Structure formats: structure tokens, C-alpha cells
Amino acid sequence: MVDSVTYRTRWADMDPNGHMRHSAYADYAADHRVVMLARWGFGVARFAELRLGPILFREETKYLKEIGIGEEIRVDGRLASASADGSRWTIVHTIYKADGRVAATVTVDGAWIDLDRRKLTTPPAELAAEFSNMPAYEPAAR
């Protein structure tokens, strides 16, 4: 099952052209990751206890349909790839308009950092298992 979150866009998400600003797409994708991790039992407090945090190496957004103020959007995330130990991963977030059309995709490449050593590390086994259980991303046929 795909874990998704529904949002309503805000005035602060808009640019002077009247549509959602580029960085708001990344903000909604990031919020989806935070919600997803918390649902798995890895909220902000748990990460602080573990002295562990997610980091991104790359973020790419593809814009397909305009989103305006007050629109309901749905964001989900699927696993495009992950290393065997869960230390590195790629998630593709899809942002849908209320009618189900894809408005954008946000692809992120990430890993885990040991907050004390400031070095990349492997996650706890239960977190790696949650990642391996994420639905797989399958690119749409062109």
C-alpha cells in the first residue's frame, strides 16, 4: 500500500504568477517523508535519540501541471532504489491534483548521517526494513 498525505495549498506556497512556487513542491515532498518516517516509528524525537538523520544528495523536480492556491493535492512516495543495508536510497514523490492528474514528481537521493561523527552510516535494521517494504516506483510508460 502506498502511504500518501493530502494537503491544501496555501497563499505562502504561491509565486507572483499565481501558481505554486518551485520550492513548495520540494517542501511538500519533504513533509511527506517526515510524516512517513513518523508513521514507521521514526519521528523527530526518535532520530534525536538515535543521533541519526536523513540527508539528501540530489533533489530533482519535474513539473507537469499547474497547482493554484487552495487546491487539494495528494503526495505519495515510492522507493526507486536502495542499497542492501539501507544506507542509501532514492525516493520518487508524486504530487497529484485533486482529480488524480500528476502535477509533479520530486526525486530525492539520500542517505543517513551519524549526527555525532558527521559521517554517513547505516540505519537501524527496523528502519532499513521499512524502506525495503515501501512500494516500488515504476516509471510511467511514454
UniProtKB/TrEMBL annotation:
Keyword rRNA-binding: no
InterPro entries, per the entry: 4-hydroxybenzoyl-CoA_TE, HotDog_dom_sf
Classification via Gene3D superfamilies: Hotdog Thioesterase (3.10.129.10)
One Gene Ontology MF term: fatty acyl-CoA hydrolase activity
UniProt cross-references to CDD domains, sorted A to Z: 4HBT
Keywords attached to this entry: Hydrolase
Stored Pfam families: 4HBT_2
PANTHER family attached to this UniProt entry: 4-HYDROXYBENZOYL-COA THIOESTERASE FAMILY MEMBER, LONG-CHAIN ACYL-COA THIOESTERASE FADM
Protein name: Acyl-CoA thioester hydrolase
